[in-house]
Amino acid sequence: KNQVEQSPQSLIILEGKNCTLQCNYTVSPFSNLRWYKQDTGRGPVSLTIMTFSENTKSNGRYTATLDADTKQSSLHITASQLSDSASYICVVSSGHNNDMRFGAGTRLTVKP
Amino acid sequence: DAGVIQSPRHEVTEMGQEVTLRCKPISGHDYLFWYRQTMMRGLELLIYFNNNVPIDDSGMPEDRFSAKMPNASFSTLKIQPSEPRDSAVYFCASSRWDPWTSGNTIYFGEGSWLTVV
């Protein structure tokens, strides 16, 4: 069973709307959590990296939250744009060498 | 900075042929990773190097896969002989320090799209 679960699997929203993507994990111990954006046909690009002590981190219109107690993270996208259409991948590291678990991703489509 | 550079971007080959994928990591990065991405399995780590030395190749599917890093600026992933089930996108990535404890960013290349027919 994958230790990083993302929801929803796919999401369609209208341009200008907000949305929230979820990432639940069971990886333990916990070192850091990353959100990546992957455009179709491109490599993943890092959006944020969150460590245990960080609850919220913003990168432009992207805001990530982390609750290490409940082992949940969310990625909130504000005022969505067509260019936000991509897959968003949650990645959790345990701090042990090579232990980095990838979620299956959420496929976001922003429509005009 | 040019980022992680991979070649070829696309390759179509016949079953049984040898495939060599190439990667140039970001200068100064001492960790290099090879990943494979498919619809069914998502992103999977195949192997990673630290300071040109292979550290963990447990993700390499089988003996048909091999990877080398002869110097700090170049790595190859070879598949011989290739099979249709090897069709996937292969990503190379690099990081300055270990990404597991340092929280350093891992930078991905644009991927090599392999189709084995």
Radius of gyration of chain B, Cα only, in angstroms? 13 Å
Structural class designation of chain A: mainly beta
Helix proportion of chain B:
under 10%
Distance between the termini of chain A: 37 Å
Taken from the alpha-carbon principal axes, the silhouette of chain A is globular
Major beta-sheet overview of chain B = 7 strands, mixed
Q: How confident is the prediction overall: mean pLDDT of chain A?
A: 92
Total of helices of chain A: 0
Describe the secondary structure blueprint for this structure.
The complex is a heterodimer of chains A (112) and B (117).
Chain A: E1 4-7, E2 10-14, E3 19-25, E4 32-38, E5 45-51, E6 56-59, E7 62-67, E8 72-77, E9 86-93, E10 100-102, E11 106-111
Parallel strand pairs in A: 2-11
Antiparallel strand pairs in A: 1-3, 3-8, 4-5, 4-9, 6-7, 7-8, 9-10, 9-11
Chain B: E1 5-7, E2 10-13, E3 19-24, E4 31-38, E5 42-50, E6 53-56, E7 65-71, E8 74-79, E9 88-95, E10 107-108, E11 112-116
Parallel strand pairs in B: 2-11
Antiparallel strand pairs in B: 1-3, 3-8, 4-5, 4-9, 5-6, 7-8, 9-10, 9-11
Architecture overview:
The complex is a heterodimer of chains A (112) and B (117). Chain A is mainly β. Chain A contains no helices and eleven strands. Chain A has strands spanning 4-7, 10-14, 19-25, 32-38, 45-51, 56-59, 62-67, 72-77, 86-93, 100-102, 106-111. In chain A, a hairpin with a 4-residue loop joins strand 7 (62-67) and strand 8 (72-77). The radius of gyration of chain A is 13 Å and the shape is globular. Chain A starts with a strand and ends with a strand. Chain B has 117 residues and is mainly β. Chain B is 0% helix and 53% strand. Chain B has strands at 5-7, 10-13, 19-24, 31-38, 42-50, 53-56, 65-71, 74-79, 88-95, 107-108, 112-116. In chain B, strands 2, 4, 5, 6, 9, 10 and 11 form a seven-stranded mixed beta sheet that branches. In chain B, strands 1-3-8-7 form a four-stranded antiparallel beta sheet, with no helix packed on it. In chain B, a hairpin with a 3-residue loop joins strand 4 and strand 5 (42-50). The mean pLDDT of chain B is 93. Chain A binds chain B through residues 31-32, 34, 36, 41-46, 49, 51, 89, 93-100, 102-105, and chain B through 4, 42-45, 48, 55-56, 58, 91, 93, 98-101, 103-111, 113.
